[in-house]
C-alpha cells in the first residue's frame, strides 16, 4: 500500500512540475510575442490572483491560496 501511495505521489509531483514549466513557458511566450500569443496567460494569472487578494476576495479564497502554497512548497524543496 505504501508503495502505491509513493508511486501516486511521484506521478503527481511529475505532472505538477511539467504543468508549472508549461505555464512558465507560456508566460515567456506572451512576453516575447505580446498580443500575438495564442493564450493570454498573464491576464489569466492576474485574474486568478485578483480573485485571491482583490476586492472580491473571500476567506475561502485566502484559505485556498494558502493550501496551494503549502502543497507546492514541498515540491520546490524536493528539487534542491
Walk me through the structure:
With 80 residues, this protein is an all-alpha fold. It has one domain (2-78). It is 81% helix and 0% strand. It is built from three helices and no strands. The chain has helices spanning 2-33, 41-53, 59-78. The mean pLDDT is 80.
Summarize the structure.
Helix content is 81%, strand content 0%. The chain is built from three helices and no strands.
How many domains? The number is 1
Unreliable spans:
none
What is the helix tally? Answer: 3
**H-E order:** HHH
Envelope shape:
flat
User: Taking all residues together, what is the mean pLDDT?
Assistant: 80
Q: What class, by secondary structure content?
A: mainly alpha
Number of strands: 0
Radius of gyration: 16 Å
Main beta sheet: none
Distance between the termini: 28 Å
The amount of helix comes to over 70%
Amino acid at each position: 500500500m505504501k508503495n502505491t501511495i509513493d508511486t501516486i505521489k511521484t506521478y503527481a509531483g511529475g505532472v505538477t512540475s511539467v504543468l508549472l514549466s508549461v505555464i512558465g513557458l507560456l508566460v515567456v511566450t506572451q512576453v516575447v510575442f505580446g498580443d500575438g500569443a495564442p493564450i493570454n496567460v498573464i491576464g489569466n494569472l492576474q485574474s486568478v490572483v485578483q480573485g485571491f487578494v482583490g476586492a472580491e476576495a473571500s476567506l475561502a479564497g485566502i484559505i485556498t491560496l494558502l493550501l496551494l502554497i503549502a502543497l507546492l512548497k514541498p515540491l520546490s524543496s524536493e528539487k534542491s
